[in-house]
Amino acid sequence: MQNKIDERIRNIGFFQKTLVRPEFGSICGVILVIIFFLLIASDNGMFNPDGIRNWTVVSAQFAIIAVGACLLMIAGEFDLSVGSMIGFSGMVLAIGSIHFGLPVWQSIILAYILSIALGGVNGFIVIKTKLPSFIVTLAFLYILRGLTIFMSVTTTSKTILSGMKPLADADWLAPIFGGEVLTGLFQWMGDKGWIEVFKRGVFEGQPVVSGVPNLILWAIGLVIFGHWLLTRTRFGNWIYAAGGDASAAKYAGVPVNRVKILLFMFTAFCACTFAMCQVTEFGSAGADRGLLKEFEAIICVVIGGALLTGGYGSVIGAGLGAIMFGVVQQGLFFSGAEASLFRVFLGGLLLVAVITNTYIRRLIVGTGD
Amino acid sequence: MSEPIIKLDNIKKNFGSVIALEGVSFDVNPGECHCLLGDNGAGKSTFIKTMSGVHPPSSGEIYFQGEKVTFNSPHDAISKGIATVYQDLGMIPLMSVSRNFFLGNEPTKGWPVKLFDHETANKITEDEMSKFQILLRSPEQAVGTLSGGERQTVAIARAVYFGAKVLILDEPTSALGVKQTANVLDTIDKMRTKGIAVVFITHNVRHAYSVGDRFTVLDRGKTIATANKNEVSPDKLQNLMAGGKELPSLED
């Protein structure tokens, strides 16, 4: 009985099984773009320790916001206010610590509380009005950006606040965003002559790449957390269900509204983390920070194999999408290509990803749906 | 006759100015299949949604095992053992069979964080589905790859596994082929012998008559008639569904 198989069920080969995994396309993509740039840009230092650090930091930034966007998209919603949220929470941190003289750790906590609360408001409005989240968060894109500029101009009469670096370095909480780990290891490798060190100047003898930025650890940590949440927990099952068919999920007793609101808050958390890392690492905040980040996050998620309509996707895929995005953006820069070409490339990549995903979905549900 | 497991008394439901139900009463006994018949727009779907907690009634009372209850959400009804199998929105096509099977009731393991126990879920899904003669390639295959009849069966198997005492089937046969319909009707028959109360919503009199013990006909939000199987013929039911008017005979 157990071994009897319906004669009409075709055996599915290993290839097709692999193909319907949401990460498959993005793994291939990452390998392809890395090979491509190894061929054309390795002479320009893209794959030196310094170069690698450059594009991994960019990729990690994308990955942090892509994790939130990915879970939210699988649950069937969008958040277009991610970029404005980055500008807003970064400005809260800078105004709090520089203008009002709050300890940096208090400003960081304040930024998190405000942005998570705003994420909750986003979700609440979407749930209550039943409007598409596209529209609601588009409104927030403008509202938050405007408020951020207003807030910084009225309190400090500036739109860019610098001078965060000394404050952040003296704080106990800020280094977990802007600091580095494994600095000892890198110094040791520099001393051994395995990696490049500065030859002269005040940094003489110190390695060019002094450690692994915590930003990268945040990105890896968030991707692992998101993947674990989605695939291993009950909540993950509810995320799939909320995006797959919200009314079916409700009838099965899934608290769809709660799931969605929590994910809007998580997306805001990710945006705030992005901003905290950016401000503490670069030492300044700007009211115009994070422009277009919401679309870049969505692009990473879609390249990573998630369906725009929800119900299907992978956080690992989104992370790989972020790597691809970072490699392409910095790779074109290293290879000295015209910067405008990056957008052409990106648009093309997005189109290919969406077409592939649609095809893959047909494979999953059998025949044309 | 035994006491009804669920009894709905004089249920009324308005949606704004639209009166969807105008005082419908209905009950079902354990081990009985009570068919709810009616043409499109008769109020069948609205009525079962009050029974399953989706729409609280505007007025009227619900008694479960003789006790007055109010259902504010589907969850309230589910926790009493009232399971509903909807015609098309019960299953999520992109999710695997076992994820669908345990949706909202996921088995967990581990501490301090309770994790979704995929191993148990997959094993139970496979076992339960084979009881209904559905052999899965894998419990992790997407529901979208199953046929309509198989999806209905997954939903029924799920409801039964989670201890449903009342099984509400909303037009389970309307989109199915001949053989799949026979399978679903056979499943209904099996449920009845297990002592489960079945509420079978359909507008197909033949399907209803082949498994039903009792029939209630709705029209325009009102009960037209309730009759036992020995009191009524399929033709009579057909005419009642048409609002008492004789239908032009096309059958022969």
Q: What is the structure about, briefly put?
A:
The complex is a heterodimer of chains A (369) and B (252). Chain A is mostly helical and 369 residues long.
Number of helices of chain A: 16
Give the integer mean of the pLDDT values of chain A: 87
Helix/strand/pairing class of chain A, anyone?
mainly alpha
Overall shape of chain B: it is globular
Q: What name does the CATH topology of chain A carry?
A: ABC transporter involved in vitamin B12 uptake, BtuC
Please give the number of β-strands of chain A.
4
- Please indicate the count of domains of chain B: 2
Strand order of the largest sheet of chain B: 6-9-10-3-11-12
Major beta sheet of chain A, specifics? 2 strands, antiparallel
Computed over alpha carbons, the radius of gyration of chain B is: 19 Å
Q: Largest interface, by Cβ-Cβ below 8 angstroms: which chains and how many residues each?
A: A-B, 33 and 31 residues
Name the poorly predicted regions of chain A.
1-8
Structural class of chain B: alpha/beta
Stretches of chain B where pLDDT falls below 50 for ≥5 residues?
Answer: none
Percent strand of chain A equals under 5%
Descriptive overview:
The complex is a heterodimer of chains A (369) and B (252). In chain A, helix 2 (24-41) packs parallel to helix 15. Chain A has 369 residues and is an all-alpha fold. Chain A is globular and about 65 Å long. The two termini of chain A are 31 Å apart. Helices cover 70% and strands 3% of the residues of chain A. In chain A, the strands form two sheets. A two-stranded antiparallel sheet of chain A has the order 1-4. In chain A, strands 2-3 form a two-stranded antiparallel sheet. Chain B has helices spanning 44-51, 74-80, 97-101, 118-131, 148-161, 178-193, 205-211, 234-241; strands at residues 6-15, 18-28, 33-38, 59-64, 67-69, 82-85, 108-109, 115-116, 166-170, 197-202, 214-219, 222-228. Chain B has eight helices and twelve strands. Chain B has two domains: 1-81 and 168-173 and 185-246, 3-Layer(aba) Sandwich (Rossmann fold); 91-164, no CATH class. In chain B, the strands form three sheets. In chain B, strands 6-9-10-3-11-12 form a six-stranded mixed β-sheet, sandwiched between helices. Chain B has a four-stranded antiparallel β-sheet with strand order 2-1-4-5, covered by helices on one side. A two-stranded antiparallel sheet of chain B has the order 7-8. The A-B interface holds A 1-2, 4-6, 9, 12, 232-234, 236-238, 240-241, 244-245, 247-254, 307, 311-312, 361, 364-366, 369 and B 52, 54, 74-75, 78, 84, 86, 89-95, 99, 102-106, 108, 113-116, 130, 135, 137, 142, 144-145.
